[in-house]
Design goal:
The complex is a heterotrimer. Chain B is of the alpha+beta class. Helix content of chain B is 33%, strand content 15%. Chain B folds into two domains: 76 residues, Beta-grasp domain (Ubiquitin-like (UB roll)); 70 residues, [2Fe-2S]-binding domain (DNA polymerase, domain 1). Helix content of chain C is 36%, strand content 26%. In chain C, helix 10 runs antiparallel to helix 11. Classes of the chains: A alpha+beta, B alpha+beta, C alpha+beta.
Chain lengths: 787, 165, 291
């Protein structure tokens, strides 16, 4: 077969390798491991948002049958150092997060004491027998109040609840704004949100006293980061620590940080010398897993009469919760709001300022999209507000202000570089898919018939596959910019490909196998991907920030190319042919244009087993390790369109139609990309319409169950149309761009714009998400009172 | 009345006898007593549907039924549906149509879909969306799950293999 | 999130169950479908010493025709209400409302007796019991008594049942001949508890409204009737103006409270909207304008 005609796996709709085990209940989620002698942890969590811990009486709990041990923070103080997320960012105040609270508690749900018992049932019984004397302290739950100088301090040692601040500026935003013929602006608010993976966090520590080895089975996205952290916090060398994240039931950022409970089971396993499991329940998940969004954004856009954007200013207050999440820091989410706010638009003048305020709530952390869902919500609303005032079509206004093809690479107001990407192509594709003019005509007719129909758009750009030149979180001292792959062929000719990434639903065992198999010239079924396990890698982090296809894909390509050369060298000797005449294809190496070939198995057996068959210089392991660093990363972008209908009486919002055109560069597996977009959009629709973590003024969580924290079901999510614009990235190997987060970035903005469009006859602007029937009722009532 | 009780439950065709505390949830019984870890807990208060199994022919939440209540009964879990070597038509349809990502909600989704198909036969897209609205999935946006269930329902009615491949 | 320990009994007869309740009183809880009780146990909001599982009592799961109505055993499941031909022909409003109750796996287990005894103020079956003027039978070792639905729901999650009483059956008197029904609710998501729900029964004779019943849920500590709104309709013509006035009166009769999901004002507004819709549907059904 001629090389150019061979079927490529990259680009094909390959069914997933992971599926059969997951479909038959044979997955290995952390809670599925049940080693002999395992004991269970239940945590006593703080009932107070802010209180001094006076006394913790664990005697009654300790004396219960089936209880192995009970620990308080003070009792484990020597077992591990507290976690401190550091940053090189100026105006960032590092604070420590304890494993178990010591001295005082800083949010409802903070772990105070740990019970270890024969079962989770007994551990919970015992946890309720622990008596804690709390001395409640005043607390400011509202971030604006907490930012005031007179507010009670959560962390006395940093002398302010404002734990970070940063500013980005380009041009003279103030002057340009003053000169702009049209200024639109508002206070925008995106409420606090739960990440909510279906699998709760779960950790199992297993310590072998004889070998002094610790294995942590963790529902984590970042086994490498966890291993590094455990080593440092527990003062253990890393070669004695292995972190395994086999099957992980969704992450979305909530499992991308290191958690106190994770450290705790490791510490307890070492202390007790037996397997210790902590499986969070849903209430604990809602109380303590890192949370998302919760920014207040005062933003203004200055626009010329022809629709050209002149200036953008924004003041952001982010409610970062009680602790700075490890290792990303409390800066991650709010700072990204300001750094991505200008979006895919030409922005000559920009000033964005952000402050992060500590409040008595669970820590804010990474969530699918990080900062960009809020940035897109604000920016895309501003664009629509301006377009409406100027009588310009919202799509035309976007297109007119997009960074144009000839301007790439373009440096944004905050210093991000957009490489060549398909901004305009995505927008055009959406316009065509919608049959936009006809849709607007239909909307007009429907409105005349009394229906409240709205059409909304969102365009955004994001940085994905970030290399070592840019920290994934501002000032963070962890290198997230490289990925290494080791590929080896064993005597049976099968291929093991070892990566540091950690799939939690993305299907990396399939997509990386596609990349490796194509590059190496083997069949897909001959490749096994090893991932989600630190054992195989000297340094690794995990899967987050839309990095794995780009970084691991690139590393896999490099390693496969290097290994193919070794295979071809060996084959050339065995076939007595020149390397240049050989082609690897379908797990065989053939002499081009002949019927002479050898299978990978025959080659491998010759190399490893048939002693003396190969000359000394060809006696080498069929193994290659390559590191890949995309340096800066690449630009991913999309335009989303939502069509919504609002019931004019109940204000119930239905999403009738949803279209996404996205540019993720070269598509490895279109089926998987579609699935990622569907899932991301569903989360974005949830964020826009349903999902909200509600704390009362004292810092008590009111939405502590799935009856009150509303995750969208199949009945609320519409069918979606996804269009791929494959503008291959000029800056990454393989032309891949990251795409796991985009759906969640675009959807809230598109829904907000569609709802606003539906309400246009009333002159209502949606400035707060989620936009619930209750909020719509109040908006409509207020608008009608004004009339 | 108090203390442990001896129960006999037939799970996936095998009869098991165990001594259990009355408070042991059926899901924990399956997972910890029988080592059938395919049934997953997602909320333990009956909302997410991840732990759905078939009890005496009806889909139920394994977090809202005690093991003692299943005494003398028959349970079908995902492990009893098909195997890695021979997927059930429903599992096959999920595989063909990419109806799963992380796989955590999948066992409950499959058992709900099985009950829906057994009770309704062929299903429209709207009926599937309503029918699985008690099973939360965070990865797929439901689209491919709906497609897979519609395809499986059609295939199971006609006896044809599911999927379009 | 695991329940606290409890003792467990699975009596085979109502008498046996009643004896257990008489012995343990408030320390015991009845377990029927368990779809509301078990979450509360898992959250440890309740820690009863004894669970009396009535699912193994024979004879409580039937639907029977009686003179002028139907008799439903306490263990009749939501799923059976949804699919029973008898319910579909005699009380189509129940079958229709069941589609709004939670999800298939919940409806497979949940029981009518459990739902009424749990008395969630936003649940459909308590609303329907009130609307349909159900008679609820309670049995204890002291004997049996029948409680009118209007006397049954006393406060949020609280009923007229004594701690030693078992709800064993529900009698539903047929609504007036030729009546029409309407049911409307709004929930945040499919299957969620209603922000507000309204059920109505209307009967006309000679163009005059002879019977008007309006009941609502989610807008008070218990399901509520709207007597003033009903009075506005009775004896008059069921035109748009009358329906609008009655809907406003129903909204005025609601006793909503603010919570996480909706304000009292919005809920009151919903009552008006939903009542209007339910009344219009009921009038259309009574006049056979819709099937």
């Amino acid at each position: 077969m001629r090389e150019e005609l061979r079927p490529k796996l990259v680009g094909a709709r390959v069914k997933r390798v992971e599926d059969p085990r997951l479909l038959t209940g044979q997955g290995s989620f952390a809670d599925d491991y049940r080693p002999a002698g395992m004991v269970h942890v239940a945590l006593l969590r703080s009932a107070y948002p802010h209180a001094r811990l006076l006394r913790i009486d664990t005697a009654a709990a300790r004396s219960m049958a089936g209880v192995v041990a009970v620990f308080t923070g003070d009792e484990l103080a020597e077992a591990a150092r507290p976690m401190v997320a550091t940053s090189k960012m100026k105006d960032y105040r590092a604070t420590a997060m304890p494993m178990l609270a010591r001295g005082k508690v800083r949010y409802v749900g903070e772990p105070v004491a740990a019970v270890v018992a024969a079962s989770r049932y007994i551990a919970e019984d015992a946890a309720r027998r622990i008596n804690v004397d709390y001395a409640p302290l005043p607390a400011a739950s509202d971030p604006l109040r907490a930012a005031e100088a007179s507010a009670p301090l959560l962390h006395e040692e940093v002398r302010s609840n404002i734990v970070l601040s940063r500013e980005f500026a380009r041009g003279d935003a103030a002057a340009a704004m003053a000169a702009a013929p049209l200024r639109v602006g508002a206070r925008f608010r995106f409420r606090r949100k739960a990440v909510l993976a279906l699998e709760n966090r779960c950790y199992l520590g297993d310590y072998h006293r004889g070998r002094r080895e610790l294995t942590l089975y963790s529902a984590t996205q970042v086994p490498g980061i966890v291993r590094d952290a455990l080593s440092e916090l527990m003062a253990m060398p890393e070669h004695l620590i292995r972190v395994v994240a086999a099957d992980v039931g969704g992450g979305f950022g909530g499992k991308a940080s290191v958690y106190p409970e994770e450290l705790l089971v490791a510490v307890l396993a070492r202390r007790l010398g037996r397997p210790v499991k902590y499986a969070s329940d849903r209430l604990e998940d809602l109380l303590s897993t890192s949370q998302a969004f919760d920014e207040i954004v005062d933003a203004e856009l200055g626009v010329a009469n022809d629709g050209t954007i002149a200036a953008l200013t924004a003041e952001v207050v982010g409610d970062v919760g009680a602790y700075s999440i490890y290792p990303w820091t409390a800066a991650l989410e709010p700072v990204q709001v300001v750094s991505f706010l200008p979006g895919p638009y030409r922005m000559p003048n920009y000033r964005g300022r952000v402050r992060g305020v500590a409040t008595p709530k669970a820590p804010l952390g990474p969530y699918r999209g990080v900062g960009r869902p809020v940035a897109a919500f604000v920016m895309e609303r501003l664009i629509d507000m301006a377009a409406r005032r100027l009588g310009i079509d919202p799509l035309a206004m976007r297109r007119q202000n997009f960074v144009a093809a000839e301007e790439f690479p373009y440096r944004t107001g905050s210093g991000i570089i957009w490489d060549r990407a398909g901004f305009a192509e995505c927008l055009t594709a959406v316009r065509v898919a919608l049959d936009y003019d006809a849709l607007r005509r239909w909307q007009k007719e429907a409105r005349a018939a009394g229906r409240w129909i709205g059409i909304g758009f969102a365009s955004y750009a994001e940085l994905t596959g970030i290399g070592s030149k840019i920290p994934a979180a501002p000032g963070m001292p962890v290198n997230t910019g490289t990925e290494t792959a080791t590929l080896r062929i064993d005597p049976s000719g099968s291929v093991t490909a070892i990566f540091g990434v950690a799939s939690h639903g993305q299907g990396l065992e399939t997509t990386l196998a596609q990349v490796v198999a194509d590059e190496l010239g083997v069949r897909l079924e001959d490749v096994r991907i090893v991932q989600g396990d630190t054992a195989g890698r000297a340094y690794t982090t995990g899967t987050y920030a839309s990095r794995s296809a780009v970084l691991a894909g690139g590393a896999g390509k490099l390693a496969a190319a290097a290994l193919r050369e070794k295979v071809l060298r060996a084959a050339a000797h065995l076939l007595e042919a020149h390397v240049d005449d050989l082609v690897a294809e379908g797990s065989r190496v053939a002499i081009r244009g002949t019927d002479r070939s050898l299978s990978f198995r025959e080659i491998a057996r010759s190399v490893y087993l048939q002693f003396g068959r190969m000359p000394p210089e060809l006696q080498e392991e069929l193994e290659a390790t390559k590191l890949y660093d995309p340096q800066f990363g690449t630009t991913s972008s999309a335009t989303h369109a939502a069509v919504v209908e609002i019931d004019p009486e109940t204000f119930d919002v239905r999403v009738l139609r949803y279209v996404v055109a996205e540019d993720c560069g070269r598509v490895i597996n279109p089926m998987i990309v579609d699935g990622q977009v569907h899932g991301g959009v569903a989360q974005g629709i949830g964020a826009a319409l349903l999902e909200e973590l509600v704390y009362d003024g004292e810092g008590q969580l009111l939405s502590g169950s799935l009856m009150d924290y509303l995750v969208p079901s199949a009945a609320e999510i519409p069918p979606m149309e996804v269009i791929h614009i494959e503008a291959e990235s000029p800056t990454t190997l393989g032309g891949f761009r990251g795409m796991g987060e985009g759906g969640t970035i675009g959807a809230p903005a598109a829904i907000a714009n569609a709802v606003t469009d539906a309400l246009a006859p009333l002159g209502i602007e949606v400035t707060e998400l989620p936009v619930t029937p209750e909020r719509l009722y109040r908006l409509v009532e207020a608008a009608r009172r004004k009339e | 009345m108090s203390g442990k009780r001896r129960i006999a439950v037939t799970v996936n065709g095998t009869r098991y006898e165990r001594e259990v505390e009355p408070r042991l949830l059926l899901g924990d019984f399956l997972r910890s007593e029988l080592d059938l870890t395919g049934t997953h807990f997602g909320c333990e208060h009956g909302i997410c549907g991840a732990c759905t199994v078939i009890l005496n022919g009806d889909s139920v939440r394994a977090c809202l039924v005690f093991a003692v209540q299943a005494d003398g009964g028959e349970v079908l879990t995902v492990e009893g549906l098909g195997s890695v070597e021979a997927l059930h038509p429903l599992q096959q349809a999920f595989h063909e149509h990419h109806g799963l990502q992380c796989g955590y909600c999948t066992p409950g989704m499959l058992m709900t879909a099985l009950d829906l198909i057994r009770k309704h036969g062929r299903l429209t897209e709207a009926a599937v969306r309503a029918g699985i609205s008690g099973n939360l999935c965070r990865c797929t946006g439901y689209q491919n799950i709906v497609t897979a269930i519609c395809a499986a329902a059609a295939a199971m009615q006609s006896g044809e293999p599911a999927g379009d491949a | 999130m695991k329940p606290a320990p409890f003792a467990y009994a699975a009596p085979r007869s109502v008498e046996e169950a009643a004896a257990l309740l008489a012995e343990h009183g408030g320390d015991a809880r009845l377990l029927a479908g368990g779809q509301s009780l078990v979450p509360m146990l898992n959250f440890r909001l309740l820690e009863p010493a004894l669970l009396v599982d009535i699912n193994r009592i024979a004879g409580l799961d039937g639907i029977a025709e009686i003179a002028g109505g139907l008799r439903l055993g306490a263990l009749v499941r939501h799923r059976m209400l949804e699919t029973s031909p008898l319910i579909a022909s005699r009380f189509p409003i129940i079958a229709a409302a069941m589609a709004e109750v939670a999800h298939l796996a919940i409806r497979n287990r949940g029981t009518i007796g459990g739902s009424l005894a749990h008395a969630d103020p936003a649940a459909e079956l308590p609303l329907l019991a009130l609307l349909l003027e159900a008679r609820i039978t309670a049995v204890s070792t002291q004997g049996r008594r029948v409680i009118a639905a209007s006397d049954f729901f006393t406060a949020a999650l609280t009923t007229a049942l004594a701690p030693d009483e078992i709800l064993t059956e529900i009698e539903l008197p047929d609504p007036p001949a030729g009546s029409g029904w309407g049911f409307a609710e709004l929930a945040r998501r499919a299957g969620d508890f209603a922000l507000a729900a309204v059920g109505v029964i209307i009967a006309e004779a000679g163009g005059i409204c002879r019977t008007a019943r309006i009941a609502m849920a989610g807008v008070g500590p218990t399901p509520l009737r709207a007597p003033a709104a009903e009075a506005l309709l009775q004896g008059g013509t069921l035109d748009t103006g009358a329906i609008a006035a009655a809907s406003r009166a129903a909204a005025a009769a609601a006793q909503p409270a603010d919570d996480l999901h909706a304000s009292a004002a919005y809920r009151r507004h919903l009552v008006e909207v939903l009542t209007r819709g339910a009344l219009s549907a009921a009038v259309a059904r009574a006049r056979k304008v819709v099937p």
